Fold this sequence. Notes:
30% of the residues lie in helices and 26% in strands. The chain contains 9 helices and 19 strands.
Amino acid sequence: xxxxxxxRLESTISTGIIENELxxxxxxxxxxGPCSVFISPKKxxxxxxxxxxxxxxxxxIILGRGSNVLFSDKGYDGVVIEMGEANNDITVDDTVIxxxxxxxxxxxxxxxxxxxxxxFEFASGIPGSIGGGLYMNAGAYGGEMxxxxxxAEAMDINGNLITLEREDMDLSYRxxxxxxxxxxxxxxxxxxxxxxxxxxxxxxxxxxxxxxxxQPLNYPSAGSFFKRPEGNYAGKLIEDAGLAGLRVGGAxxxxxxxxxxxxxxxxxxxxxxxxxxxxxxEVKKQFGVDLEPEVKxxxxx
Length: 301
Ligand SMILES: Cc1cc2nc3c(=O)[nH]c(=O)nc-3n(C[C@H](O)[C@H](O)[C@H](O)COP(=O)(O)OP(=O)(O)OC[C@H]3O[C@@H](n4cnc5c(N)ncnc54)[C@H](O)[C@@H]3O)c2cc1C
């Protein structure tokens, strides 16, 4: 049955399938064992791939640029559907930009700058895709996807394409209706404002400079590991708890930004999970605050 599934999937996806692909090659944490099958389908091939997964009862997951996920070292017994270069067209119409879900936030920000469009500078240094960015309602420096999105094309679990307007998306801090309704973001439309190119560039440079100053960008990570607790900052609580530099195996709490768990030396997924639990326990013990991970976990831990 499984061989038949793979054969049928392979004949559906023009770029082919990769078996036992290591997920550490596709995540910014550089952690993760093999998935059963890895595919990078074109947009029109995605419904067919999902239908096949459903027909054979094979689990699947959507991957953007892998910048907010932790895959288990045991891997993922299912199909990883990458939204990447096969779905990354960006078009501009006056102040409106529409991008395929796999377009990077950086590429969309660059396109906005080139066209003198302001309002997306906040996203230029977030290392994800625009599809993943909308799914997570990514944000930084006072801006978030919620502020700029107009609509999105999405696919439901039956393979139907639907359009969601912003008010249908239930966007709030690192939350969206796409998570709750199990929708795949296929493309995203944002509306920006006409602006001055030099000012747009200066703002992007400022934000990216602040990132370089404050974040451990020289180590693999998934960015801020924990969500911001109500009225507080995860990084500050972790620092105040005396956990800067705390290490488990190859994983460490960054001393530069305590909200980041970094892969300093071939960390395993278990190292990261154990470190996460130590941090959560200590912060709970000292401050009574529950830290909830922002990072999404895939596979069994
Ligand atoms: C150094 C660093 C800095 C970061 N800074 C920030 C920051 O300032 N602000 C911020 O918000 N985040 C930040 N992040 C986290 C991350 O970049 C964002 O959450 C980003 O939006 C994730 O996009 P992605 O394409 O990498 O998603 P992935 O990591 O590939 O996926 C994340 C989740 O989204 C789902 N997903 C991805 N694409 C789709 C799709 N098309 N349809 C449906 N589901 C999808 C996945 O299944 C998964 O559950 C940072 C990460 C790093 C490594």
